[in-house]
Amino acid sequence: FRVKNSLYNLVNGASGDAKDAVVILEKTPFQEENISDLLKKHTRLKLQMSNDIYSTYHLYPPPQLSEIKTTVVYPATEKHLQKYLRQEVYLIRETGEDYRNITLPFIQSQSFSIQWVYNILEKTAEADRIIHENPDSSNGFVLIPDFKWNQKQLDDLYLIAICHCRGIKSLRDLTAEHLPLLRNILHEGKEAILNRFGVAGSQLRIYLHYQPSYFHLHVHFTALSYDAPGCSVERAHLLSDVIDNLELDPQYYQKRTLTFALRADEALLKKFQEAGKA
What positions does UniProt annotate as the active site of this protein (predicted)? Predict the structure, then answer.
C-alpha cells in the first residue's frame, strides 16, 4: 500500500533510495468517554441494509476519533519482513537435548539486534516511559508500557518487565539462582501497576513467552480481560508457574520438553526438519 507525507519520506529515505520497511496499522480501541461523540452530527452514516428493527451502516467518524496506531520498522531486514508475513504454522516439541543441539546453536548463529533493549536499560531511549525500576544489576528490572498499549484505557493494559541482567536469553536459561529476580518482577511489577493504574494483581496475566520474540529475558503484564497477542497456551508460561517449577526443580527448564509454534519459512523449522524432529 502507499503511505504519504512524512511517513512516505521516511520509508523511502532522505536520499530517495528506496529501502524495505514494515508499516503496521492498528485501529486503536474505542474509549468509553468518546462513544457518544461518534454518534453526533460530525459523524457520517451510510446505510448498508435495513430489515425491520435491524439496520447496518458504514460509520465515518471525524478525524480526531479515527486514530490509527502506526508502527514503522525501517530499514527492515529480511527477518523483519518474514516475521510479519502470513505463514502456515507448525508445533514443535523441543526436548532439553533438542534445545542444546538445535535451537541454541541456531540462536547463537543469528545477528538479530537487541540494541533497542539495551537503550532502554541504559536510559538512552524511552527513559520517560519507565513506570518502575529496580536498579540491581542481577535481580533488577525496568517496567515499561508495551507499544501495543496506548495508555488511554485499562482494558488492553500491556507492560513489559525487562531484566537488567544480560546473560539470560529465555525461559531455557532459568535456574533456581534466578528466583530472586523472578520474584522481584512478580511482586514489584504488580505493586507498581496497582499504584500507577489501580489494577490489582488478580486482574493481571503475567507470563513469559517461549520462544520469545527477542532473546533477552522479559516478562509480559497484560490485563486479564485482554486477549493479548501471544497469550495462547503454546507460547505463554505464567510467571507464578515458572517460579513454582524452579522451586521444585532448579534445572526444570533445562530438562522439560517445551512446545512452541514456528512458521513455515522460519530457518529454525528447517533445522528441526533436517534433524527429523518436525
Answer: 218
The three cell numbers locating residue 98: 533438542
46-58 core/surface letters (b: 16 or more CB in 10 A; e: else): eeeeeeeeeeeee
Q: pLDDT digits over 216-269, tens only?
A: 999 999 999 999 989 999 999 999 999 999 999 999 999 999 999 998 988 999
Domain ranges (residues) in the chain: 2-84, 89-274
89-274: which CATH architecture? 2-Layer Sandwich (3.30)
Q: Using an 8 Å Cβ cutoff, are 243 and 175 in contact?
A: no
218 catalytically annotated: yes
Contact 262, 252 (CB under 8 A): no
89-274 has the same fold as 2-84: no
Task: Tell me how far apart the alpha carbons of residues 12 and 72 are, in angstroms, rounded to a whole number.
Answer: 12
- The rounded distance, in Å, linking the Cα atoms of 181 and 173 is 13
Query: CA 263 to CA 102: how far, in whole Å?
Result: 17
Does position 17 have pLDDT exceeding 70, yes or no?
A: no
57 is in an annotated binding site: no
Whether omega for the bond prior to residue 75 falls within 30 degrees of 0, making it cis, is yes
The stretch 126-140 carries a mean pLDDT of 97
132 is in an annotated binding site: no
Q: Establish whether 147 is an annotated binding residue.
A: no
Look at residue 265 in the predicted model and tell me its pLDDT: 85
Q: Of 98-112, 189-203, 222-236, which one has max mean pLDDT?
A: 189-203
Distances (CA, A) of 39 to 59, 61, 99, 131: 9, 8, 55, 36
Looking at 80, 132, 218, 237, which residue is catalytic?
218
